[in-house]
Structure prediction request, 298 residues.
Amino acid sequence: MRAVACWLLLLAAPGYAAASPSFACPPQGWDRAALETLKREEFALADPVRLEALAQGLVFCLGDPDPTLRDGIAYEALSAWMRKGALPAPALRRLSDLLYFRLDGPEGEGYVHPFAALVLAEVARTDRVAAWMSAQERATMVARAVRYETSVRDYRGYDARNGWRHGVAHGADWLMQLSLNPALDDAQLAAIVDAVAAQAVPESGHAYVFGEPERLAAPVLYAARRGFRDEAQWTAWFAGLPARLGDAKLAYRDPAWLARRHDLLAFLQAIYVSADVSDDARLRVLLPGATAALKAMR
Prediction:
């Protein structure tokens, strides 16, 4: 993680973070008006050196409390450039290191980690579309995505003033892009679906209201579509989910238990409906396990 080491050394320098425009949002050489113009021009930037410099600078806008800068410009620009293939593999490696660095840093107001994860989902997509990562780099990304998703404890979603945080859903998007990658092996897919299980029924008893169960279902559905696990194996996996509701003595008498039931019900229904309407036999192997888990919750 060469880039991370460089950033950490810079951070350690007295007064660097406060003084350096590299950590500022908007980035050095850009103001808000220029960024808004760039957005109107669909983020067209012909100079690859200038584009990469701005891409790295915009990583430091991912934690900005202004949703226009954070979501509407920083995320949208990074996503657009990656989907257009504007960042070659060396630039994507440097971007990944910088995003990992942001994930390892403080949460601040709660925006930076979810948006770093969302941009990393786009990085994962580039490798899925045209492989450029080494096996070790890909394994590192799977491990980082799993660690991120299972560690989320900030369940805030949308705020009318400050926009999205949505940590669980953004992590699920990262896992989804990885689950679609044919280079992943069964052990890596197992780690992904187990990470989903950890957040499908959050221990804290937070009730999802921003579409998280559907986003969490996606990596499971795509893993199944690859032929990962047979019907018996999926049924065994689903059978472990109702136990996450907690003490049966608290059933229907405890708000946290009820919230967990709400979340699991929504997750299982998302799986069930998607599998039931599909003609893909690889998806339909999910139905017996999902059905049994739903019945176990009655």
Observations:
- Residues 166 and 269 are 21 Å apart (CA to CA).
